[in-house]
């Protein structure tokens, strides 16, 4: 009985890992690679810390299909990302744009590193 439960859980887990479904994949391998690259740069609006390529959420699937549709219509990577960004805001981008209100996101890591270095060398003396 335990073996049956373990096999069932492994099967369930294997299906959960599959995100991009076969009907979503483009026939053109080059466009498919671009679609995956775009998908890895867009955040899932439901899962928050996952990209849309690895998310099982319905909205992530819709966004994957939208990206692939726009690619087949001839839109560029930049145009597609701009379209999604205009619809969903800065949150959908894993790399937020450099603006005055995102300044802390960009500068704080460097300030933190300098401060840690200062404290480390000061402590050694």
Describe the structure.
Helices cover 62% and strands 0% of the residues. With 125 residues, the protein is mostly helical. It folds into two domains: 2-94, Cytochrome C biogenesis protein (Helicase, Ruva Protein, domain 3), CATH 1.10.8; 99-125. Helix 2 (29-41) crosses helix 3. The longest helix has 22 residues, at 103-124. The radius of gyration is 21 Å and the shape is flat. The N and C termini lie far apart (64 Å). 14% of the residues are buried. The model is unreliable at 14-18 (pLDDT under 50).
Which descriptors apply to this entry?
2 domains; 125 residues; Helicase, Ruva Protein, domain 3; 62% helix; mainly alpha; single chain
What summary fits the major beta sheet? none
Coarse morphology: flat
> How many structural domains in the coordinates?
2
Beta-sheet strand percentage? under 5%
End-to-end gap: 64 Å
Q: Low-confidence parts, pLDDT < 50 over ≥5 residues?
A: 14-18
CATH fold annotation of the largest domain: Helicase, Ruva Protein, domain 3
Tally of individual helices: 5
Following the backbone from N to C, one meets helices and strands in this order, namely HHHHH
Q: At the first level of CATH, what is the class of the largest domain? A: Mainly Alpha
The CATH superfamily of the largest domain turns out to be Cytochrome C biogenesis protein
Number of beta-strand segments: 0
The value of Rg in angstroms is 21 Å
Mean pLDDT: 83
**What is the CATH architecture annotation of the largest domain?**
Orthogonal Bundle
Proportion of residues in helical segments: 55-70%
Structural class: mainly alpha
């Amino acid at each position: 009985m335990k073996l049956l439960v373990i096999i069932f859980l492994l099967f369930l887990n294997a299906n959960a890992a599959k995100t991009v479904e076969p009907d979503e994949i483009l026939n053109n391998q080059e466009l498919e690679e671009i679609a995956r690259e775009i998908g890895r740069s867009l955040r899932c609006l439901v899962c928050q810390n996952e990209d849309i390529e690895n998310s099982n959420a319905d909205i992530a699937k819709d966004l994957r299909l939208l990206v692939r549709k726009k690619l087949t219509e001839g839109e560029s990577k930049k145009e597609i990302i701009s379209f999604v960004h205009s619809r969903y805001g800065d949150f959908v981008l894993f790399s937020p744009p450099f603006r005055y209100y995102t300044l802390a996101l960009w500068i704080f890591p460097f300030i933190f590193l300098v401060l840690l270095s200062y404290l480390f060398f000061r402590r050694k003396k």
